[in-house]
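Side project, low priority. Logging it here so it doesn't get lost.
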Amino acid sequence: MNDITFADVVHPSVSFSPEDPAERLILNLIDTCWFQRLRDISQTANTRLVYMFSEHSRFGHCLGVAYLAKLVLEKLASRYPKDVELYKAAILVAALLHDVGHIAPGSHTAFKTWFPCQPDEHEALGELVLKQDSEIGALLDSFAPDLRSKVISILSESEDVPAWAWQIISGGGWNVDRGNWSTVDSVLAGVSYGKYNIAALVDSIVITADKQLALMENRLDAMMHFMVSRHAMYRQIYQHRVLLAADVINQAIVQRARDLGPTLEFADDIMQQVLAAKTVAELRADTIFQMRESWWRYHLCRWSQGSDAILKDLSERLLHRRLFKTIRCTSHTNMEALLVEARACLEKLGLDSRYYLHTITTADVHSGDTRQSMLVQLDDGQVITLSDADPMFQAMVSDARISKRAWIALPKEAKALLGHVR
C-alpha cells in the first residue's frame, strides 16, 4: 500500500505509511473531528496583519511536528531499537495532538485575550480532550490499552516515561515542535529568519545512558544556527510591535463585551459561556470545540455593526486594520508620567483609557531553555549542557534577559496629541 502524502512548504512532502501500525494510527487520528478542527485555529494569530501570507493553521503545524518526530525516531531506531519500539506510537501521537487544545482567536493569543495575566493552558485543554473525546479515545485504546496514558505522560513531561520520550517534543534547545514552527512560520511570513539545517540536527540526536535526549558534539554548529534562527523569529516576527499592538485590541474587545454584561447585543451560547468564565478551567470540552477563528470573526462582524460605540470601534479596528500605534519605552522613560499624559490625551478625544491605552512587553525568548537546557554528548562520551558546550548559547540567553522591550499602545490620534509623530 502506498504512503499517504501531504504537500508541505518545508519538506518536499510529508508522508505516513498505512502499513506501519503507529503511522496508520496517525492517519486515522488526522481524520478525527478534533484534529480537523485545527484547520480553523490560526497558527500565528494577528501576524497576518503584518506579514500578509501568515494565514496558516495549527493543522499543518501539528502534521509537520508528527512528521519531524517520525524522522527523528527512524534515526534513533537504528541505534536504540528497544527504546523506540516501546514509545514510538505514543511519541507520534503526542507530536500530532500536542496542540489539540488550542483555541481561537490565534492559539497563544487566545489565552491573553480571554484570560489576561493567566498562564497559557492549551496543554491542560489538550489533556482534557484526550481524556474525554470518545473518537480519539477509541482509536488510542484499540491500539493499546496503555497508549492514552503514555501520550498524556509525554505531553505532561511526567516521570512515568523516560525523559527522552518527551524531550523530542518539548525539551530545551531544539525539539520537533520548535523545529517545525521556526521554519514553517518563516516561509509563510515570506522571510528567511527561521530557516536552518533540519537534516543535520535530525541526524545528530542521540539517547544518553540515563535516557536523556542529547546532541552530538560535531553538530553544535547546526544547533547554534537553529538557536539564532529561533531568536530572530521572536525578535522580528512574534514580537513585532504592530503585532503586539493588535493583540491588545483583542483583549480590549473581550473586556468591553464582558463589561457590557446583559446589555451586550449579540453573543451566541458559546460566547456567553466563554465571557462568563473566570478561568480556562471553567470551559467544557464541547465549548472549547466550538471556539474557532470563524466563530470569533463572526462575532467581530456582528459587534462592528452594533450600537455600542466602543465595541463597534474596537471591532472595526481589528477587522479593517486600524490598529493602535506604539511608543517605545526605555529604561529612561518615566512610565508613570507618560501614562498620565496619555490618559489626558485620550480624555480630550473622548476615548476611555480602559480600552484605548495598554502597556506591552516582550517575554524571555529562551525561558524554556534555561529551565531545561539540551544536553550535548562530547566525542569522548561525556555529557554536558548546551550552555557549557558553547558559550554563544549562554550569551544569547543572557542577551534575551536584558533586551526585553516595552511600549505603550494607543490610537494614532492620541499618539499625535502626545507629540510622538513618526
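Brief comment: The longest strand covers residues 325-329.
Revisit when time allows.
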